[in-house]
């Protein structure tokens, strides 16, 4: 954390995109690049993060700013196909594909809660996914992986940074695609990704406040990542409407 050093936050349009101004200073990335984003709506969302900081700047709460910095600086120096492959690789260990046989109550819960989202993904993308109780996981066909590779290739680099971020948070490509397609909500995606943990908590109880904090943090990260993807995939400017009495 650091002390807030600015009074006003605004956005402006430059050659590289939409910029964030802290008083009269232009925001820069950790690698000292000009912080310029491709859409006005995203710039407004980032500006809101900065404006909502109080006496101190809590960088760990500014998920959209962090995602933009990652997209601009690309610290891992990965290209588009490497980002896509990293996201699709999660299919091999996808949370909703790994099932238990014991206890029966948890196995039944997984079947009831996870089967519908797997079935949706199979029908939506015309692929075979399945599930497995083996420690090796399901045998995902190469054609399924290539279908997802082809689909993700339709997104730009900025959106792909967000997609990989959400997939990593949920540890599931299937849940992430359900979110991006607006098939499930953030709350639902987080609940499904934490199904076994939620089952254990209901059975044995939880550490006071710690569970709720972890759940809220995950929701915040997943919500920010999903918003980032949509704002990077849509029109670059906001349509301003004249408000009438």
TrEMBL record:
Subcellular location: Mitochondrion inner membrane
Domain of life where this protein originates: Eukaryota
Main localization category: mitochondrion
GO BP: any one term: mitochondrial proton-transporting ATP synthase complex assembly
Family matches, as Pfam families: ATP12
GO CC terms in record: mitochondrial inner membrane
Keywords for this protein: Chaperone, Membrane, Mitochondrion, Mitochondrion inner membrane, Transit peptide
Membrane disposition: Peripheral membrane protein
UniProt-listed InterPro entries: ATP12_ATP_synth-F1-assembly (IPR011419), ATP12_ATP_synth-F1-assembly_N (IPR042272), ATP12_ortho_dom_sf (IPR023335)
Known function: Plays a role in the assembly of the F1 component of the mitochondrial ATP synthase (ATPase).
Record note on quaternary structure: Interacts with ATP5F1B; involved in the assembly of the F1 component of the mitochondrial ATP synthase (ATPase). Interacts with FMC1.
Family: Belongs to the ATP12 family.
The protein, known as: ATP synthase mitochondrial F1 complex assembly factor 2
Lineage: Eukaryota, Metazoa, Chordata, Craniata, Vertebrata
């Amino acid at each position: 954390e650091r002390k807030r050093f600015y009074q006003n936050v605004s956005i402006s349009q430059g050659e590289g995109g939409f910029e964030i101004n802290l008083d009269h200073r232009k925001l820069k990335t950790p690698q000292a690049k000009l912080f310029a984003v491709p859409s006005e709506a995203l710039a407004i969302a980032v500006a809101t993060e900065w404006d909502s900081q109080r006496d101190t700047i809590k960088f760990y709460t500014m998920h959209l700013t962090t995602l933009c910095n990652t997209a601009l600086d690309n610290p891992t120096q990965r290209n588009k196909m490497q980002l896509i492959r990293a996201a699709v690789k999660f299919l091999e260990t996808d949370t909703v594909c790994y099932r238990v046989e014991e206890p029966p109550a948890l196995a039944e819960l997984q079947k009831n809660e996870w089967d519908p989202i797997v079935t949706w993904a199979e029908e939506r993308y015309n692929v075979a996914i399945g599930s497995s109780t083996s420690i090796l996981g399901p045998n995902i066909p190469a054609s399924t992986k290539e279908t997802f590779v082809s689909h993700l290739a339709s997104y730009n680099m900025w959106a792909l940074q967000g997609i990989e971020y959400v997939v990593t948070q949920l540890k599931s490509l299937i849940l992430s695609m359900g979110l991006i397609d607006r098939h499930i909500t953030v709350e639902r995606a987080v609940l499904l990704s934490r199904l076994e943990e939620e089952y254990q908590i209901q059975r044995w109880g939880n550490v006071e406040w710690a569970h709720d904090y972890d759940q809220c943090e995950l929701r915040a990260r997943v919500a920010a990542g999903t918003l980032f993807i949509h704002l990077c995939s849509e029109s670059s400017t906001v349509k301003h409407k004249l408000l009438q009495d």
